[in-house]
Amino acid sequence: MRTQVGIVGAGPAGLMLSHLLHLHGIESVVLECRSREYVEQRVRAGVLEQGSVDLLRRAGLADRLDRAGMRHEGIELRFDGESHRVPLTELTGRAITVYGQQEVVKDLIAARLAAGGEILFNVDDVRLDGLDSDSPVIRFRRDGREEELHCDFVAGCDGFHGVSRAAVPDGLLTTYERTYPFAWLGILAAAPPAVDELIYANHERGFALYSLRSPEISRLYLQVAPDEDIAAWPDERIWAELRARLETVPGWSLNEGPILEKGITPMRSFVVEPMQWERLYLAGDAVHIVPPTGAKGMNLALADVALLGDAFAAWYGEGRTDLLENYSRTALRRVWRAQHFSWWMTSMLHRLDGQDAYEAKLQSSTLRYVATSRAYATSLAENYVGLPEV
Ligand code: FAD
Ligand code: DHB
Predict the structure, then answer these.
(1) CA within 20 to 30 Å of 102's CA: 189, 214, 328, 363, which one?
(2) Is residue 46 within 6 Å of ligand 2 at its C-beta?
(3) Which CATH number fits domain 180-266+351-385: 3.50.50.60, 3.30.9.10, 3.40.50.1100, 3.30.465.10?
(4) Which ligand has the nearest atom to the CA of 290?
(5) Cβ of 291 below 6 Å from ligand 1
């Protein structure tokens, strides 16, 4: 098999890149180790920055997004028994849209297949070869048979646990990393959200987040221990903990309902530089991870491949190499802004085991500063909705 760009991974990064290349008349094949059902059902992020929405719209992918996506013009910060709204749109002129990652993935898969695009699901044992030549080869197994995909370039969009990053020879990449002594327990519940806007809560029992997916479905998160066992969290315990952390303002209560899905997500900050080696271009979670508090993961993945799409278009269309050469440097500017913002939001909102009273006072003071200073709130808001140019 031969194509122009071989793409490993059918998450938001890989699928979006394949779609953007198609719009530029460039062929690609996407290789995915999971099934179509699995990637379409995987519950993950839910917040699209304005820039991501604009990108999806420009790429002709916003029909369902425009009908089902929920535009939010503010978020709420809840701490010390008070609630404060950060008016995102008033401060920045921009907004966020709540639309589940798996819906973005469904829209992308549908668009690729409708255009005759090739996505090979359920492939095994993906190996990258010849990345330092003009004709890399991706070897893999499908239905028990060995196959080869020959291409001009490889895009490694296979997430944190993928194989692409590891294909770069030792010693050429620099890793920057931070782990956190907590994780998030996330649930999807058949309960009408008791909120119009997301609530980020700092509580002495730990962080909680109230989000949503539709007028009937709520999405909520709790800070838990990093090694927490989901079996220790029967539904009643989850609701009791959510009530304790979120029902802190008079007259407000959350809506409960059957829990449809629950899982634990570890927290990590991680960047590998550069995001390219020879003919391998890395994008999304394959090269950078942020803790989810800033809602940046999926947005960064889309921003990376928007750059890559343009860079490949310039190479194939005009023989230009500059955009490909600058891809890593350009992408890393946005990546590091999101790294800082995500770390900052995480530090401000979570409780650490053994956190001393001094740190708790600093968190309160920081939150109060955001709540009362237009300048500081604007800084949070412009990062949250996404900076157009970094
Ligand atoms: P992915 O979506 O991870 O896609 C990579 C794809 O590559 C996957 O489909 C995978 O199956 C495939 N793959 C992996 N290895 C191979 C291989 N060897 N061969 C072929 N295919 C392979 N962000 C938020 O903002 N909020 C959240 O609440 C949130 N929750 C998350 C929960 C979890 C469990 C995880 C893992 C991430 C979460 N994120 C969240 C982050 C966000 O979902 C990611 O940033 C986003 O999915 C990145 O997209 P991607 O396309 O780079 O990677
Ligand atoms: C959601 C996830 C996030 O990480 C976040 O910061 C806000 C919302 C969500 O899944 O809805």
Answers:
(1) 328
(2) yes
(3) 3.30.9.10
(4) 1
(5) no
- The two structure tokens encoding residue 92: 């920045």
Cα(150) to ligand 1 centroid in Å equals 25
pLDDT digits (tens, 9 = 90+) for 48-87: 999 999 999 999 999 999 999 999 999 999 999 999 999 9
In terms of pTM, does the model score above 0.95?
yes
CATH of domain 5-72+96-176+268-345: 3.50.50.60
pLDDT digits (tens, 9 = 90+) for 201-218: 999 999 999 999 999 999
Distance CA 274, CA 336 (A): 13
Question: Which long-range contacts (C-beta less than 8 Å, at least 24 apart) are formed by 228-231?
Answer: 228/183, 228/185, 228/264, 230/185, 230/262, 230/263, 230/264
Q: How far is the CA of 80 from the centre of ligand 1 (A)?
A: 34
